[in-house]
Write a structure and sequence with these properties.
alpha/beta, methyltransferase, 7-stranded parallel beta sheet, about 35% helix, Alpha/beta knot, RNA methyltransferase activity, Alpha/beta_knot_MTases
């Protein structure tokens, strides 16, 4: 296995460029850190282009051999690649999944309007995965699902279901099913809605909620009642409740 001992190595510089969304979008590649995330990418049959490992003997040989190229790095290089305080000692460059065919047949869809907090986005992706939704559609202005913090929060679920960036209004206009949006005004208690075989669930920005213009395209507005003194629920918690309610 070829060794890389400098953070100035061209391959390491290229990997570090993938920390920027612009580079990920242009190349179709993602930098992933940690055994669990890389293992989930392998299970999802994504292409592992390069693997960088501090101590190869610590990792499963099948995981290592799943990569097209493998490199042994030292701890200093790992620190340069890592997005955490304590590097996990294994990194991979993977190809983003091709989701075009899955989008066309999606029946249960999560629509996200400018969700910007990586933790919230990762949690929603993980919940959508757990509930076996078919698709996540994200509006421009949302956090990138392939940034490091979202990847960690999703626990690898980002590799399990298709996620696309698209104008939500356009998607809803073409969607053949009811679309529910979260709102306070002109909304019904979510408990009044039955589970659906086909649906879209629209969640909005943490501070501003769903864009009022988008709400005009929804079939029904839903609200979750507050029985205590809290003013509202975190969007990831609210979204999780509604996903499972609609899923049934």
């Amino acid at each position: 296995m070829e060794q890389i001992t400098s953070a100035q190595n061209a391959k390491i510089k290229h990997a570090n460029k993938l920390k920027k969304k612009k580079e990920r979008d242009k190349s179709g590649l993602v930098l992933v850190e940690g055994t669990h995330l890389i293992d989930e990418a392998v299970k999802s049959r994504l292409t592992i282009k390069q693997l960088f490992i501090v101590e190869p003997e610590r990792f499963d040989i099948e995981l290592i051999e799943a990569a097209e190229e493998q490199y042994q790095i030292n701890f200093k290089v790992a620190e340069a690649l890592s997005g955490t305080v304590t590097p996990q000692g294994i990194f991979a460059i993977i190809e983003k999944p091709d989701v075009s065919k899955q989008v066309e047949v999606a029946k249960q869809v999560l629509l996200l309007d400018r969700i910007q907090d990586p933790g919230n986005l990762g949690t929603l992706i993980r919940t959508a995965d757990a509930a076996a939704l078919d698709l996540i559609v994200m509006s421009p202005g949302s956090a990138d699902p392939f940034q490091d913090k979202v990847l960690r929060a999703s626990q690898g679920s980002v590799f399990h279901l298709p996620i696309i960036s698209q104008d939500i209004k356009e998607f809803v206009q073409d969607f053949d099913g009811p679309v529910y949006g979260t709102a306070l005004d002109n909304a019904i208690n979510f408990n009044e809605v039955e589970s659906q075989e086909k649906f879209g669930l629209l969640l909005g920005n943490e501070g501003q909620g769903v864009d009022p213009e988008l709400l005009e395209y929804t079939t029904q507005r839903l609200t979750i009642p507050m029985y205590g003194e809290a003013e509202s629920l975190n969007v990831a918690i609210a979204g999780s409740i509604l996903i499972y309610k609609l899923k049934g």
